[in-house]
Sequence to fold (228 residues):
Amino acid sequence: MRNNNLKNVNDTIEWEKGHDMIPYEDAVAYMENRARLIATHTAKEKVWLLEHPSLYSAGTSANETDLIDPDKFPVFHSGRGGQYTYHGPGQRVAYVMLDLRKRGRDVSAFVRNLEQWIINTLLVFDITAERRSGRVGVWVIQENGTEEKIAAIGVRLKKWISFHGISINLNPDLSHFEGIVPCGIQDFGVTSLHKLGKKISMIELDEALKSNFEIIFGPTTPSKNLNN
Fold:
């Protein structure tokens, strides 16, 4: 069921899928500009799916001691919430530029909706994923009872416009997470759809993301290009 806060949202949301590795700094610059345009009602809301070259991103709560191998990949200090995370090939990043002024101005509810979007998407592939109190992101329980993180969330708001967003581990090199303490959490590992035995393609994941996004956030329309 769609969130009741969205009943007055009539505009469709642009849906963009990048086909090349997008440099992190280019993506951040684009999102910041797009958020300004959305805030002044001169651009539509947008979701941008992409992959980044391997990098570490530090959120506003990042602790420098959690950067174990600072020379492994470029490190970017972003304005999003959260701590250190890894982005790289085989990981689907979805940047979500939405206007929370017409979506209840409730940041907690927005994050819960992002979590639910991921949970519903993974369920398409018979993966049961869950929230955990005090641990932002989405988690799965392995057969031995251990919990591992399969998706991360980190958002930023300016004038109630969101940017940054989520990342889901489809089939990244999970050893690259060893250069950081992911999200500042030492007691749990990370996993991916492929590690869980789900040998799906990025296209299949994208289709599930799109259909489940629309259920929660509203209808989408294909974006023409990144200059819009």
Q: What stands out?
A: Residues 107-123 form the longest helix (17 residues). The two ends are 30 Å apart (CA to CA).
